[in-house]
Amino acid sequence: MNTPVQDRILVTGGAGFIGSALVWALNQRGQTDIVVADFLEPSKHWHDQVPLSPNADDKRKNLQPLRFAEFIEADTFKERITAKPGIFGRFATVFHLGACSSTTERNRPYLEDVNVDYSRHLARWALAQGARFIYASSAATYGDGSAGMEDQDENIARLHPLNLYGQSKQDFDLFAQGQGWLDRIVGLKYFNVFGPNEGHKGDMRSLVHKAFEQITATGRLRLFKSHRPDYRDGEQKRDFLYVKDAVEMTLHFAEKGRTASGLYNLGSGQANTWLTLADAIFNAMGKPLNIEFIDMPEELRGRYQYFTQADITKLRSVGYSRPLTPLAEAVRDYVQNYLLPGKRLGDHTTFS
After folding, report:
1. What pTM was estimated for this model as a whole?
2. Helices (H) and strands (E) in the chain, counts
3. Is 201 in the active site?
4. Which candidate in 59, 78, 189, 201 is catalytic?
5. Is 210 one of the annotated active-site residues of the chain?
6. What domains can be seen in the chain, in order of their start residue?
């Protein structure tokens, strides 16, 4: 039995995918003293760099079944803690999950603002307040994996991300290391997370969500061909992690792993092919396997990860002992309990 996270908690990105799942998991533990910060309205400061998302209503719907003390726009939160650091009271834990997560984003200043500068500001504030600071890094920092995918802090500088999103995450990891913060904070390198509450993410949704829509509409699934001779079509491999496992891992660092610090891989520890994932999706939907392979867009070919697999030895070494949900079981839960009935996390829960 985990020790519940006590006292006030901040979750940035708390209306988003992993953030709202984290709030849901905290609710399961009886925790409701949570401040959620996210972008749902046009920003006052970034203007057209952060427009009102066309999927903002979906993010609002993620929050509807959940219980929390307060919601505040992320830029307003930053303004207020800058003017008066203790305005929201004392936080025991800050989960900084808010970010631009688009791997195709080309606006470097926007990524610098949202993923780097905001993180610097929030980490500095949290440490000054004595809060536990846990933030989202990304497996995108590993690039093509040629420099390895081991979550050792001393490896950061040799990594070469393939896109600006991954570079922005790398930039904050390097900054935190340079400040000596990695001895006091936790950075989580999420691999390919999928599950309920991701519908607002557009092109950044998991294949499971996209495939469900495609198969429902056409009876078939389109997958990218391989453009490397060492991988056959559909046999590119990724480490797929169910969001329910991802949030348990995340909460571990605020519960049993409170003395841990530095960077940690969060993944299943297994690499599965797109074909294996596709088979699980068709099975969960009760449909026959029907795949069409299409050319990968030229602009993606040089920035595409063909293989990811998390080494979670370090995570296990700090006491995370829960078994991981097998891929087929996770896909079945997602498809049958959330996608088919159109539900979100928390919709199944009746609070007393």
Report:
1. 0.93
2. 12, 13
3. yes
4. 201
5. no
6. 8-200+240-269+310-324 (3.40.50.720)
